[in-house]
Amino acid sequence: MGGDSAAPPEKAKPSPKPTPLWDRSPGSVAAVGDSITRGFDACDVLSDCPEASWATGASPEVDSLAVRLLGRTGAAQRSWNYAVTGARMADLPGQMAQAVRRKPQLVTVMVGANDACRSTPSAMTPVSAFRADFEDSLRSLRKALPKAQVFVASVPNLKRLWSEGRSSPMGKQVWKLGICPSMLGDADALGSAATLRRDTVQKRVEDYNEVLAEVCAEDKRCRHDGGAVYDYRFGTTQLSRWDYFHPSVNGQARLAEIAYRTVTAKRPLT
């Protein structure tokens, strides 16, 4: 009789796939930010319209980020909007504190336009303060929810909005009520002083966008839109017919598209 045959080699167990840092289909969404995320002037003059929000709105015409990710029923149950019209970056830590109580898997951030839209360019939020408050907001989120994901939208191109909207006499009348005076004040003035004022505001917006991209890049679970909102060429169709500055329902839908494309991309946009 022969000796014992060698035992067959054990099959190597497949190593478990590492959990990806970015989940392209998060199960809940909280939004923080300013009037754009509240749908201000999208449905009626000088009023919020959260149902038209690009982030969490239920409007079929907008097809918001939350609806695209969660479906209509899921968005109604698992998305929350903590944005406030008029909010600046200094308000973001407080909004973030509200959002974390919901334990969202994704937080959307769109803020910064009001930091540039002040009474005068000298009243704009300093870049250093803007950075400090954004860092504080992400730090508090990360402390409470280590695995929460963040989508950060760039600040829109305010000078382009001025250029588009100044063709509307009604829009310019609404601007006189105090909408972004640093950029929109004396809308038809084209002299050197007015040009310098607008260029100063535009440079600050660019600086803010640089901060948003840099701070987001330091967080492995944060995705920036790569400047897509800033670069988007909003035309009159995408602007509110009441103020020719805030997004219309159509403009909100375009913002939802940008956000969804960024969140569901296989790799971060650059």
UniProtKB/TrEMBL annotation:
Cross-referenced Gene3D superfamilies: SGNH hydrolase
Gene Ontology molecular function terms on file: phospholipase activity
Region (Disordered): 1-26
InterPro entries: GDSL, PLB1, SGNH_hydro_sf
PANTHER family for the chain: GH22081P-RELATED, PHOSPHOLIPASE B, PLB1
Protein name per UniProt: Lysophospholipase L1-like esterase
Organism of origin: Streptomyces luteogriseus
